[in-house]
Amino acid sequence: MALYSEKVMEHFRNPRNVGVIEDADGVGEVGNAKCGDIMKMYLKIDGDTVTDVKFETFGCGSAIASSSMATELIKGKPVADAMKLTNKAVAEALDGLPAYKMHCSVLAEEAIQSALADYYAKHPEKKPAT
Amino acid sequence: MRIYADNAATTKPSRAAIEAMLPYLEEEYGNPSSLYTLGQRAREAIEQAREEVAAVIHADPRDITFTSGGSEADNQAIRSAAEKGRKAGKTHIISTAFEHHAVLHTLNRLEKEGFRVTLLDVHENGLVRPDELDAAICDETCLVTVMTANNEIGTIQPIRALGELCARRGVPFHTDAVQAVGHLPIDVDADHIDMLSASAHKFHGPKGVGFLYARKKVPLVNLIDGGAQERGKRAGTENVPAIMGMAAALKESAARMDGDAERMRTLRDRLITGLREIPHSALNGDAVKRLPGNANFCFEGIEGESLLLLLDDRGICASSGSACTSGSLDPSHVLLAIGRVHDVAHGSLRLTLGEDATEEEVDYIVRNVREVVEYLRGFSPVWRDLVSGKANFIL
Q1: Which of A21, B135, B171, B301 has the highest CB neighbour number within 10 Å of its CB?
Q2: pLDDT above 90: residue A126
């Protein structure tokens, strides 16, 4: 069996939404170079919708694929849905990740959470009541 | 197209090795311990193989024990010297920080059993200093174990100087020569080596077979108990076909060694020169005292696994010391031992050329590594921070 699913390899070879949004509404960076994975997410938010998302990743194949898939799962979706994106959903959308690579999907979830937290810090009025 | 540049991981079995094995899989299937002719022919064959293997390292054939490979040989060598030491009240072992895990994990176990282990510094160039070994040896030292050539960065240790020192100080000297046998000249007498580990699949033999050379002054401790095979030191019916393949491969490698090494060094240096042109990269280990086919680099701002996967897409087989390829959170202990920080060690690439490598292949590798590194840096947040001045370059 190959190391990764076809889906992981496809996203790794052709990552979606790679790059930077210069005037992003929210930016989040998680991980550290010491551990070998860093993900940075840039969000553009209009009203209640994630209108654009881009990422930069330093990491292994599954880290790049997880970033790519996570951006696909939230792009054009309501912010409320992005808030609820789980690492499990990212991993499932990739047809699974090896057990020791699940942390890559966790990083993708955390990167989006971190970018949304940055957005709410800049726009406290948008923060949904809890 | 496939360019196999991972010969430190394993090598392609030679035609000579395969042909030497076939009769012992097809017709000559006797058990060497059986007394009828079929068995005795197998016995004669492996004793002939033992002589051929011994000749390559200038050893007495009676000091060669066939094993399942390098790891078993390392385990048995170290355990045996430790046992001899324990009986004499000597429980100190000296090794280096960048040994193979077959050595390091055996030493960890011995530490739990009360042994004290000193790991010598291998410095930035990946070389042990004999004067530091001299200073580390004490009355309790029962073993010095230093690898002949490192499996990741390929640096070749001053084995003869270390061996002479051990002989003078009266300490048994073991060397894990898995990467060296069949590639570098070894003379156990001239080099003062008391024990040596080797593995067939590193010199175009089959996997799952190797040997331990041990002088009589270190009585071997059994790792596997059972029958009286290998003079009672390694139970289990001998893997006759594999032993025959190993001997044939080693004989051929040794005969070709000098010419092969010279040609490979030229290609390796071409590879190193090409890869050095990639900005913010660094060669790991001494540029001269290294295995003829080994080039090991760190590239700042990228991670090794993604580099390997993309090189695989372009037909290049290589390896890396990144955490993701080691199956742990830490990058290669070898790269850390020569002082590379984690951030940089994750972006390492090991290319180990074979004897049949060509200039065209080397140029193809250089071109593709350069392109892939550039591509990965293009969306690396680490690289962005370095380029924008938010972080400082290390390399």
Answers
A1: B301
A2: no
Whether the predicted pLDDT of B325 surpasses 70: no
Between CA A72 and CA A18 the distance in angstroms is 11
Write the residue in B303, B313, B382 that is nearest to A13 by C-beta: B313
Provide the domain count of chain A: 1
A96-115 residues touching B, CB cutoff 8 A: 100-101
In a domain, A128, yes or no: no
Query: Which tens digit of pLDDT belongs to each residue from B230-270?
Result: 999 999 999 999 999 999 999 999 999 999 999 999 999 99
pLDDT on residue B221 = 97
CATH for the B3-8+257-387 domain, from 3.10.180.10, 3.90.1150.10, 3.40.50.1110, 3.20.20.70? 3.90.1150.10
The CATH number given to B15-253 is 3.40.640.10
* Domain ranges within chain B, ordered by starting residue: 3-8+257-387, 15-253
The two three-digit tokens of residue B185, written as one number: 């000249």
Scanning A2-31 for CB atoms below 8 A from B yields 9, 12-13, 15, 18-20, 29
| Beta strands, E only, chain A | 26-32, 37-46, 49-58
ipTM of predicted complex: 0.95
| Closest by Cβ to B305, choosing from A9, A35, A61 | A61
Query: Is B15-253 the same fold as B3-8+257-387?
Result: no
In a domain, A130, yes or no: no
Using a CB-CB cut-off of 8 Å, the residues of chain A touching B302 are 58
Which amino acid is located at B118 in the chain? Answer: T
Structure tokens at B268: 């390796």
Q: Give residue A110's domain range.
A: 6-121
Kindly tell me if the per-residue pLDDT of B329 is higher than 80.
no
**How large is the average pLDDT for residues B173-180?**
98
The residues with which B175 forms a beta bridge, in sequence order, are B196
* Average pLDDT of chain A, as a whole number: 95
Instruction: Indicate whether B366 pLDDT > 60.
Output: yes
Q: How far is B327 from chain A (nearest CA, A)?
A: 8
Average pLDDT over residues A91-118: 96
Comparing CB atoms, the residue among A12, A20, A35 nearest residue B309 is A12
Q: State which residue of chain B sits closest to A57, comparing Cα positions.
A: B380
Which residues of chain A have a CB within 8 Å of the CB of B331?
36
Active site residue A60: no
